[in-house]
Amino acid sequence: MSPISTTASILKRLRVQASLTQLQLGTRIGVTKASISAYEKGKAYPSLPILTKLAQEFNQSIDDLRGGVSPSRAAEPSAALLREPAPFQDVPYLAAPGRAAFVAALGASGEAALACALLPALAVPALPGGPVPAGALVAEVDDYALVPALYPQARVLALPVPAAEWPFLPPGLYCLAYRTSFAIRRLKDNTLLQKGLLLLHADQPAGGGTYPVRAEDLRAVWQVRCAVFAPLM
Description:
This protein is an alpha+beta fold.
């Protein structure tokens, strides 16, 4: 059994023994119900601060939660990684089926922070330069428009871009909410200042080719920083 699977089964067993729901446990340690579910399913690994809180909650040591792996037994690389896990952070997660509801929650004013607060959380590694900033989200790819770079079910971490910076967006990969749509597309040309248009591009013709989005239709923009999950094809 892998270290993540071991911790997942231990956490679920301890929670059930304590007669706690996932929501109750999450509330006690300051994370969402979705995060507890991800930990117990082995889809995410608790960060060290969260692991410490879990150990205190269940009156266990961190080594106990890791299945008995202690620093003295961590000579191998895999054990060393277990001893010093990469810091993780809960980030709002937008699954493909939830796009329409998410854009509706944005409203005409594009209140991204409020809409993101309604999303479940997904634990992702912190960025090399520091924590993931507020307003960021993880979005699931839902089509073949960006193949071979990204396939359906891939998940990208995207950082929010303030509206004042939209006229100066450079070419790149973005998550955009506009009208009633949410898309992950390449920005091919930015003429917001000159023509009031962003020219979006799909790498595959099936993704709609190249098409414009008007400035007045834009609600929110995130710049894709990295993929946090990419299925093998």
